[in-house]
Amino acid sequence: MLASLLRGAHVGFVLAREGGLSLIEAGDLPPHLRLALRAGRLLERRGLGTGAGPLQRALTRLGPSYVKFGQFLATRPDIVGLEAARDLETLQDRVPPFPQDVALRVIEAALGKPVQSLFVSFSQPIAAASIAQVHKAHILDPDGTERVLAVKVMRPGVRERFQRDLRVMRFIARIVHALSPEAERLRPREVVEILARSVTMEMDFRLEAAAMSELAQNTKDDTDFRVPRPDWEHTARDVLSSEWIEGIPLNDRAAIEAAGHDSRALGRAVIQSFLRHAIRDGFFHADMHPGNLFVDPTGTLVAVDFGIMGRLGHNERRFLAEILLGFILRDYKRVAQVHFEAGYVPAHHSVDDFAQAIRAIGEPIHQRKADEISMAKVLTLLFDITALFDMRTRTELVMLQKTMVVVEGVARSLDPQLDMWTGAEPVVRSWIARNLGPLGRIEGVGRAALTITDVVSDLPDLAQRLRRILVRLDEAGTGNADRLDAFARATRRRAIWSTLALWTIAVGALVMAFR
């Protein structure tokens, strides 16, 4: 506790010194915390600017764990606000690479063989971040074919450092909750635990390889998008090997056009691929910034870095498809009904009132040109409206909305005139026709019949269990009265002795104080 207190004090000092406290709204705090905030802001250096810039500097100074925390907050605009989340997107997770000989030792310990026997050649680090760094390697297949791999190597000691910093974050979250229960609306303890789970998964490269493999399987028939293949033989918890991608990053539009690629088609492929993954598959890349997207020599879109992924269940996918189609068709009543059918809005609210609120979002967008309408902004406004109707925050939908903001930005950087809604419509209609049309209904009836069959087959076993429980309750009932009486007497005795002990301690403290 003392170590956490000292480290927490250091975190607070750095945040105050670098201006990271400027994002806190003083009006939302109780008087004693407003006073503490004013005292903390006296430590600010002058000329730090506004927005999330000071917070970025503070997190960078605090180290890789806090940079990762800032990047995580960038995916949660429901916690820090949309503007701060957008600013935090630029937080860079770049640190100097660790030595080559250390990387070789990590690989040999993880894969159990000397590097010389694993690879024909192994480069110096190509890129480095707080968790890992990437090398380029060549391997020789049994048939004599030479392949090029991207090899990601875990940074030594990173797990221990993250666990230490997470203990401090948990400690700070508990203090925030104790000092201001009102701050629980930001769910500081839940945020830290979600970050802890995310980082734990990100630090096992076998899970990232599995995500890469799953997305590759989902998209194997897509002609405009592909995923590099993981190399399982050269992958372990601390090492991830996958197909090396030769391509142009999507943030280099000049190089894309110079290579003869169609930037307009690429922009459409970005938005349609994302929607296919989210709506068709329910599994999407949740970190689709331009640095993680490339166009290969054939003009195909390629994604890399699968540490952060999002999932949507069938209900969430139906919700997303129907609200997008509802806005396209201006069917606001249907959009409202979908919210109620999914159970997102409590039943005591009026569907008609909710549809009226949604119309206030939808009608203005139809007064503008299609290429001026932001699909991500519509979803953001929709979530703002739903908050007025007691819709609880759903993490998976927030991650989806935030990813859509990034994807839309990437698509529009390739084609500023891109009509997001026209691009989305075929994907949305295809899913609805397949899942909510006649074929989908037949499949739904089949699934329901299987469920009923399973329940019926379990009835004899359930009846036997219920009988045993009733017999035990009947046997236990005869002695319950005596046990309850004995428990009450024991509780009274403990209360009396606890009270006497507290008074003894208090009297002893007073005697020592007056000596």
TrEMBL record:
Residue ranges occupied by any Protein kinase domain in the UniProt entry:
120-488
Report the InterPro entries cross-referenced here: ABC1_dom (IPR004147), Kinase-like_dom_sf (IPR011009), Prot_kinase_dom (IPR000719), UbiB (IPR010232), UbiB_bact (IPR045308), UbiB_kinase (IPR050154)
UniProt keyword Cell membrane present? yes
Q: Which residues form a coiled coil?
A: none
Lineage, top-rank taxon, reads Bacteria
- So, what pathway does this thing act in? Cofactor biosynthesis; ubiquinone biosynthesis [regulation]
Name the UniProt key words of this record, in alphabetical order: ATP-binding, Cell inner membrane, Cell membrane, Kinase, Membrane, Nucleotide-binding, Transferase, Transmembrane, Transmembrane helix, Ubiquinone biosynthesis
Task: Give the residue spans that cross the bilayer.
Answer: 495-514
Entry-linked Pfam families: ABC1 (PF03109)
What name does the UniProt record give this protein?
2-polyprenylphenol 6-hydroxylase
**Carries keyword Magnesium?**
no
Question: What PANTHER family does the annotation carry?
Answer: CHAPERONE-ACTIVITY OF BC1 COMPLEX CABC1 -RELATED, PROTEIN ACTIVITY OF BC1 COMPLEX KINASE 7, CHLOROPLASTIC
Family, per entry: Belongs to the protein kinase superfamily. ADCK protein kinase family.
